Amino acid sequence: MAIKRQVIEDSEIRRQEEICARIFARVAAGGARPLALVDTYGCQQNEADSEKLRGYLAEMGYGFTSDEFEADVIVVNTCAVREHAEMRVLGNVGALNHTKKARPGQIIAVCGCMVQQPHMAEKLKKSYPVVDLVFGPHELWRFPELLERVMTKHKRVFAADKSDGVVAEGIPQRRDGSVKAWLSVMYGCNNFCTYCVVPYVRGRERSRLPEDILAEARQLVEAGYKDITLLGQNVNSYGKDLGGGTDFADLIRLINDIPGEFRIRFMTSHPKDATEKLFRTMAECEKCCRQLHLPVQSGSDRILKRMNRSYDREKYLGLVALARQYMPELVLTTDIIVGFPDETEEDFADTLSLCEAVRFDAMFTFIYSKRVGTPAASMPDPYTRADKQRHFDQLTELSNRISGEKHREYEGRTLRVLIDGETGREGYNLSSRTDGGRLVHLSGDPALIGQFADVTITASNTWALYGEIRNSEFGIRNWENDS
Ligand code: 5AD
Ligand code: SF4
């Protein structure tokens, strides 16, 4: 079935920018520079959305703070994937009563996936009077308009568009760093895995046009970004809604062709849509990292079926073998849910054996969390929380053991890394990433941030590698001797 893409007109975004200018004049009249705080929960897509919220706020004249007592506007960008994240949001929003009392006139907005669920929007409306503005992900493009309404009408505003979602280009962005950047290539999800709330809150799959993505990628490279992560709930179905001209592999190749020294990563890939063409393209594109996040969720065919994942264990293992054939050095990570309704000891044993067989470089493991309105929420589940916790601990132990063993294999090797930040720790004061995305701690001059360097791995543990810089673009340099 063809999905109609609802594209927000440029003129609408220009109108939002005019509203930003009006708010600028309004807040500038108050004297001191106003401050905003954007607090982000959840996935990278939310991080990318928060960069847009900050982009708009910067156009309105706001500076940024991490202290809620200092903020004139607080935006809490929420996640709905698991109950734990929602509980944290509700706890933290409740605590804002104190800051609002101490700072009358403070505006508190809650946005993102959690509030797209009607029961959660209702809860905020009824039980959290401290909240002035609530808006879902499909409304982000008109944040200035909604904020202005709160400022001028002095009323609470609730906006949750029930549509399948929109594509909006040209929203200003204020990116967090200067080395790594998120680049959304598509929004939404059509897969309806039975445990997952994302398709209900983020709408149907909508791809951005290749030319818009390429223009943004070129800008990022020109601005000096060295590590670009292409984002989408399921990047492997990129382009299907556009009529099938450019698929995700084609998109990687187009971005790879942009001149400059930078890396391309992407997430997340659904195994049902990962193709040989994708692996071949990754292997052929020198800027594309040999890194694949391929969530398996379970190793049991019975559970995969109940999850509506559309692949089985054999197909998954076949994909891994194929990907490794094209890229023997591939770094492979995954997501796994423990304790899906009615997951038996036998099902769990299948998950353990799959993990032993694949030997993931890292595993992100979650205890199943019941989500309102999803099919799994009404599946019988005879197992206790203690059963699930026991399996979770067992899987974590396995995951840590394998990650530690894989990390030890790096010791003595010399690899190219991108130095991306400071750790704030003495000794190993810099952080960097290998092509495969593994974290490497280094000691060196902070001026090296944003540079590629060859490093020799000298030590490792479960979570990270430790290395020594051999040479960087500055040549061999030992900062202790520099002064
Ligand atoms: N409970 C636990 N984990 C979940 N995930 C998605 N929905 C749920 C849920 N209801 C996990 C999946 C997904 C990752 C982003 O979050 O493993 O890949
Ligand atoms: Fe959720 Fe499945 Fe879509 Fe991923 S592919 S966002 S797990 S429904």
CATH class category name of the largest domain: Alpha Beta
What is the multimeric organization of the chains shown?
single chain
Radius of gyration: 23 Å
CATH architecture of the largest domain: Alpha-Beta Horseshoe
**Biggest sheet layout:** 6 strands, parallel
Question: Which kinds of small molecule does this entry bind, naming each only once?
Answer: 5'-deoxyadenosine, iron/sulfur cluster
Count of domains: 3
Tell me the CATH superfamily of the largest domain: tm_1862 like domain
| Mean of pLDDT | 95
Major beta sheet, strand line-up: 3-2-4-5-6-7
Helix content: 25-40%
Report the span from N to C terminus.
66 Å
Percent of residues in beta strands? 15-25%
Question: Shape from CA axes?
Answer: globular
Count, helices: 14
Report the uncertain regions.
475-483
Task: Give the class from helix and strand content and strand pairing.
Answer: alpha/beta
Total strand segments: 21
What fold name stands as the CATH topology of the largest domain?
A: pyruvate-formate lyase- activating enzyme
Task: Explain this structure.
- The chain has helices spanning 10-28, 44-59, 83-102, 113-116, 118-127, 143-153, 198-202, 210-222, 248-256, 276-284, 301-306, 313-326, 345-358, 385-408; strands spanning 6-8, 35-40, 63-64, 73-78, 107-112, 133-135, 157-159, 166-168, 180-184, 186-187, 206-207, 227-231, 263-267, 291-293, 331-338, 362-367, 414-422, 430-434, 439-442, 452-460, 465-472.
- The chain has 483 residues and is of the alpha/beta class.
- It has three domains: 6-166, Rossmann fold; 173-408, pyruvate-formate lyase- activating enzyme (Alpha-Beta Horseshoe), CATH 3.80.30; 414-481, Beta Barrel (OB fold (Dihydrolipoamide Acetyltransferase, E2P)), CATH 2.40.50.
- A six-stranded parallel sheet has the order 3-2-4-5-6-7, with helices on both faces.
- Helix 10 runs parallel beside helix 12.
